[in-house]
Amino acid sequence: MLGKWLGKNRTTTGPATTDRAAPVSVPVDAAAGAGAGSVWTPERALRALEEQRALCEKLDQLSLAQRTLIEGGRADALVELLTQRQVVIDRLDALSRHVEPLREGREGALSSLAAADRARVDELLEFVAASTERVRSRDDQDRAALERQRADVTRELVGMARSRGAMAAYGTPGPPAAPTYHDRQG
Predict the structure, then answer these.
(1) How far is it, in rounded angstroms, from Cα 152 to Cα 138?
(2) Which one of 8-17, 29-38, 105-114 scores highest in mean pLDDT?
(3) Residue from 11, 7, 37 nearest 113 by CA
(4) Which of 32, 37, 170, 178 is 20 to 30 A distant from 50 in Cα terms?
(5) Is the pLDDT higher at 17 or at 69?
(6) What distance in Å separates the CA atoms of residue 100 and residue 22, rounded to the nearest whole number?
(7) What sign does the CA torsion over 37, 48, 80, 152 have?
(8) Closest to 53 measured CA to CA, from 130, 114, 109
(9) Which residue(s) pair with 25 in the sheet?
Protein backbone atom coordinates (compact mmCIF):
# COMPACT_ATOMS: atom_id res chain seq x y z
CA MET A 1 0.00 0.00 0.00
CA LEU A 2 1.32 3.44 -0.86
CA GLY A 3 0.65 4.35 2.76
CA LYS A 4 3.80 2.37 3.57
CA TRP A 5 5.71 4.67 1.26
CA LEU A 6 3.92 7.86 2.20
CA GLY A 7 2.78 9.21 5.50
CA LYS A 8 0.58 12.21 6.07
CA ASN A 9 1.93 15.02 8.14
CA ARG A 10 -0.05 17.98 9.21
CA THR A 11 1.92 21.14 9.19
CA THR A 12 0.91 24.58 10.15
CA THR A 13 2.18 27.62 8.45
CA GLY A 14 0.67 30.47 10.34
CA PRO A 15 -3.09 30.35 10.49
CA ALA A 16 -3.48 27.76 7.72
CA THR A 17 -3.06 24.04 8.26
CA THR A 18 -2.05 21.91 5.28
CA ASP A 19 -1.78 18.21 4.59
CA ARG A 20 1.29 17.01 2.75
CA ALA A 21 2.79 13.64 1.97
CA ALA A 22 5.90 13.00 4.00
CA PRO A 23 8.63 10.55 3.05
CA VAL A 24 8.64 7.32 5.00
CA SER A 25 11.53 4.92 5.52
CA VAL A 26 10.59 1.46 4.24
CA PRO A 27 12.60 -1.56 3.11
CA VAL A 28 13.37 -1.28 -0.58
CA ASP A 29 15.03 -3.87 -2.80
CA ALA A 30 18.54 -2.82 -3.79
CA ALA A 31 17.85 -3.94 -7.35
CA ALA A 32 15.34 -1.13 -7.70
CA GLY A 33 17.96 1.51 -7.17
CA ALA A 34 17.78 2.03 -3.43
CA GLY A 35 19.16 0.34 -0.36
CA ALA A 36 17.12 -1.03 2.51
CA GLY A 37 15.50 1.65 4.60
CA SER A 38 15.57 4.23 1.82
CA VAL A 39 13.07 7.06 1.89
CA TRP A 40 10.27 6.80 -0.66
CA THR A 41 8.49 9.93 -1.77
CA PRO A 42 5.59 10.38 -4.20
CA GLU A 43 8.11 11.64 -6.76
CA ARG A 44 10.26 8.55 -6.33
CA ALA A 45 7.24 6.25 -6.66
CA LEU A 46 6.25 8.06 -9.85
CA ARG A 47 9.80 7.73 -11.21
CA ALA A 48 9.66 3.97 -10.57
CA LEU A 49 6.36 3.79 -12.45
CA GLU A 50 7.77 5.91 -15.29
CA GLU A 51 10.73 3.55 -15.54
CA GLN A 52 8.36 0.60 -15.56
CA ARG A 53 6.43 2.24 -18.40
CA ALA A 54 9.63 2.77 -20.41
CA LEU A 55 10.62 -0.85 -19.86
CA CYS A 56 7.17 -2.01 -20.99
CA GLU A 57 7.56 0.05 -24.16
CA LYS A 58 10.96 -1.58 -24.78
CA LEU A 59 9.49 -5.02 -24.13
CA ASP A 60 6.67 -4.28 -26.58
CA GLN A 61 9.22 -3.31 -29.26
CA LEU A 62 11.25 -6.46 -28.61
CA SER A 63 8.07 -8.51 -28.84
CA LEU A 64 7.31 -7.06 -32.27
CA ALA A 65 10.87 -7.78 -33.41
CA GLN A 66 10.51 -11.32 -32.04
CA ARG A 67 7.47 -11.87 -34.26
CA THR A 68 9.44 -10.77 -37.32
CA LEU A 69 12.34 -13.09 -36.51
CA ILE A 70 10.03 -16.06 -35.95
CA GLU A 71 8.20 -15.45 -39.21
CA GLY A 72 11.56 -15.15 -41.01
CA GLY A 73 12.92 -18.35 -39.42
CA ARG A 74 15.95 -16.51 -38.04
CA ALA A 75 16.72 -18.65 -34.99
CA ASP A 76 20.17 -17.20 -34.21
CA ALA A 77 18.87 -13.63 -34.14
CA LEU A 78 15.86 -14.80 -32.10
CA VAL A 79 18.14 -16.23 -29.40
CA GLU A 80 20.00 -12.91 -29.18
CA LEU A 81 16.74 -10.98 -28.96
CA LEU A 82 15.44 -13.28 -26.22
CA THR A 83 18.59 -12.54 -24.21
CA GLN A 84 17.89 -8.81 -24.51
CA ARG A 85 14.28 -9.42 -23.55
CA GLN A 86 15.29 -11.29 -20.41
CA VAL A 87 17.31 -8.28 -19.18
CA VAL A 88 14.24 -6.06 -19.59
CA ILE A 89 11.99 -8.63 -17.91
CA ASP A 90 14.36 -8.99 -14.94
CA ARG A 91 14.36 -5.21 -14.40
CA LEU A 92 10.58 -5.08 -14.74
CA ASP A 93 10.27 -7.82 -12.15
CA ALA A 94 12.41 -5.88 -9.69
CA LEU A 95 10.39 -2.70 -10.22
CA SER A 96 7.13 -4.59 -10.02
CA ARG A 97 7.83 -5.53 -6.43
CA HIS A 98 8.08 -1.85 -5.55
CA VAL A 99 4.91 -0.72 -7.27
CA GLU A 100 2.87 -3.70 -6.05
CA PRO A 101 1.40 -1.68 -3.18
CA LEU A 102 -0.10 0.67 -5.75
CA ARG A 103 -1.84 -2.21 -7.49
CA GLU A 104 -3.07 -3.98 -4.36
CA GLY A 105 -4.55 -1.10 -2.40
CA ARG A 106 -4.97 1.37 -5.18
CA GLU A 107 -7.83 3.44 -3.79
CA GLY A 108 -6.53 3.77 -0.24
CA ALA A 109 -2.93 4.08 -1.30
CA LEU A 110 -3.62 6.88 -3.74
CA SER A 111 -5.71 8.93 -1.35
CA SER A 112 -2.63 10.66 0.09
CA LEU A 113 -1.46 11.86 -3.33
CA ALA A 114 -2.42 15.08 -5.06
CA ALA A 115 -5.11 14.66 -7.71
CA ALA A 116 -2.66 15.16 -10.59
CA ASP A 117 -0.27 12.57 -9.15
CA ARG A 118 -3.14 10.12 -8.58
CA ALA A 119 -4.23 10.52 -12.20
CA ARG A 120 -0.67 9.97 -13.41
CA VAL A 121 -0.27 6.84 -11.25
CA ASP A 122 -3.57 5.47 -12.60
CA GLU A 123 -2.46 6.22 -16.16
CA LEU A 124 0.91 4.54 -15.66
CA LEU A 125 -0.55 1.46 -13.99
CA GLU A 126 -3.15 1.07 -16.75
CA PHE A 127 -0.48 1.47 -19.44
CA VAL A 128 1.71 -1.18 -17.82
CA ALA A 129 -1.22 -3.59 -17.50
CA ALA A 130 -2.32 -3.06 -21.13
CA SER A 131 1.24 -3.33 -22.44
CA THR A 132 1.86 -6.50 -20.47
CA GLU A 133 -1.33 -8.04 -21.84
CA ARG A 134 -0.36 -7.12 -25.44
CA VAL A 135 3.05 -8.73 -25.03
CA ARG A 136 1.54 -11.81 -23.38
CA SER A 137 -0.97 -12.21 -26.19
CA ARG A 138 1.71 -11.77 -28.84
CA ASP A 139 3.92 -14.30 -27.02
CA ASP A 140 1.09 -16.84 -27.07
CA GLN A 141 0.73 -16.34 -30.83
CA ASP A 142 4.49 -16.61 -31.32
CA ARG A 143 4.60 -19.79 -29.25
CA ALA A 144 1.89 -21.29 -31.47
CA ALA A 145 3.85 -20.26 -34.59
CA LEU A 146 7.01 -21.89 -33.23
CA GLU A 147 5.07 -25.07 -32.45
CA ARG A 148 3.74 -25.13 -36.03
CA GLN A 149 7.27 -24.65 -37.37
CA ARG A 150 8.53 -27.48 -35.17
CA ALA A 151 5.71 -29.76 -36.39
CA ASP A 152 6.60 -28.90 -40.02
CA VAL A 153 10.26 -29.77 -39.43
CA THR A 154 9.24 -33.02 -37.73
CA ARG A 155 7.08 -33.97 -40.73
CA GLU A 156 9.94 -33.19 -43.10
CA LEU A 157 12.35 -35.31 -41.09
CA VAL A 158 9.91 -38.21 -40.97
CA GLY A 159 9.42 -37.91 -44.75
CA MET A 160 13.18 -37.95 -45.31
CA ALA A 161 13.56 -41.02 -43.10
CA ARG A 162 10.84 -42.84 -45.08
CA SER A 163 12.48 -41.92 -48.38
CA ARG A 164 15.82 -43.23 -47.18
CA GLY A 165 14.17 -46.42 -45.99
CA ALA A 166 12.49 -46.95 -49.36
CA MET A 167 15.75 -46.36 -51.20
CA ALA A 168 17.55 -48.80 -48.92
CA ALA A 169 14.90 -51.45 -49.61
CA TYR A 170 15.79 -51.43 -53.28
CA GLY A 171 19.48 -51.68 -52.54
CA THR A 172 22.23 -49.42 -53.62
CA PRO A 173 22.79 -49.09 -57.31
CA GLY A 174 25.96 -50.86 -58.40
CA PRO A 175 27.71 -51.22 -61.74
CA PRO A 176 25.53 -52.55 -64.52
CA ALA A 177 25.44 -56.31 -64.72
CA ALA A 178 27.33 -57.94 -67.57
CA PRO A 179 25.10 -59.33 -70.28
CA THR A 180 24.43 -63.02 -69.97
CA TYR A 181 23.27 -63.57 -73.55
CA HIS A 182 25.21 -62.53 -76.63
CA ASP A 183 23.99 -62.43 -80.09
CA ARG A 184 26.39 -63.70 -82.78
CA GLN A 185 26.25 -60.65 -84.89
CA GLY A 186 27.17 -58.14 -82.43
Answers:
(1) 21
(2) 105-114
(3) 7
(4) 37
(5) 69
(6) 20
(7) positive
(8) 130
(9) 39
Could you tell me if 26 and 40 are in contact, meaning their C-beta atoms sit under 8 angstroms apart? yes
Q: Is 116 exposed, middle or buried (0-12, 13-18, 19+ CB in 10 A)?
A: exposed
C-alpha angle 172-175-179 in degrees, rounded to nearest 5:
125
Q: Name 77's Cβ contacts closer than 8 Å, sequence gap at least 6.
A: 69
Q: How far apart are CA 45 and CA 122, in angstroms?
A: 12
Residue-wise pLDDT for 84-113, tens only, equals 999 999 999 998 887 776 666 556 656 677
- At position 100, the amino acid (one-letter code) is E
For 44-77, how does the pLDDT look when each residue is reduced to its tens digit (9 = 90+)? 778 888 999 999 999 999 999 999 999 998 989 9
H/E stretch holding 156: helix 115-169
Under DSSP, the state recorded for 30 is G
> Cα(75)–Cα(8) distance, rounded to whole angstroms?
54
Around Cβ 127, how many Cβ atoms within 10 Å?
15
Pairing of strands 6-13, 16-25: antiparallel
CB distance 40 to 28 below 8 Å:
yes
